[in-house]
Design brief:
Elements (H helix, E strand, L loop, with lengths): L2 H44 L4 E9 L3 E8 L5 E7 L4 E6 L6 H11 L4 E10 L2 E12 L2 E10 L6 E6 L7
Antiparallel strand pairs: 1-2, 2-3, 3-4, 5-6, 6-7, 7-8
């Protein structure tokens, strides 16, 4: 084989591999995309929102979907739906400490910790901010969850510390 034919064969293999990976990625992500799409439709079906800016999936006691967006009158709003798409709670954004301010407040209170994720969700059937973070503890790092009230005060409700070791 000539060098041109080798180059053509290698390029053809790379293209085939790229196409296969694209189909594989699409196949793996399709359930997630379908679930998000159906929840977006459920949010619009409630008639509460005209535009969705963020959609969060929160799993704790039950699976909850939280949509953040605007109403027809341009008011910012959080809408909490259950897995079936039924409206659970509706909270105006001006009644809630904004996420960036909440993060700043939290980091000021927990200087040595680092946030992994902050998300709105339901805890004990009430809207909350959930913080998942890691904190140094001696020579180890501990991973923890904290739940804060979903209002202007963002009061701590509960802390859960994950074990450092699992198994027997």
């Amino acid at each position: 084989m000539t060098p041109k034919r080798w180059l053509f064969a290698i390029i053809a293999c790379l293209i085939a591999l790229g196409v296969w990976f694209g189909f594989y990625f699409r196949d793996v992500q399709m359930p997630k995309w379908s679930e998000e799409s159906s929840m977006r439709e459920a949010v619009f079906a409630t008639g509460e929102m005209a535009n969705i800016e963020k959609l969060y999936k929160h799993v704790w006691e039950a699976t909850t979907w939280v949509a953040y967006g605007t109403t027809e009158t341009e008011s910012e709003l959080f809408v909490f739906l259950n897995e079936e798409g039924a409206l659970q709670h509706r909270v105006m954004a001006d009644q809630v400490l904004p996420e960036d301010q909440f993060r700043t407040k939290w980091l000021n209170d927990h200087a040595s910790a680092s946030i992994i994720r902050v998300t709105p969700g339901l805890f004990r059937e009430q809207p909350v901010w959930e913080v998942y973070y890691k904190e140094p503890e001696g020579s180890k790092e501990r991973f923890k969850y904290q739940f804060y009230s979903f209002d202007q005060q963002a009061t701590l409700i509960e802390t859960y510390t994950l074990p450092t070791k699992t198994g027997p």
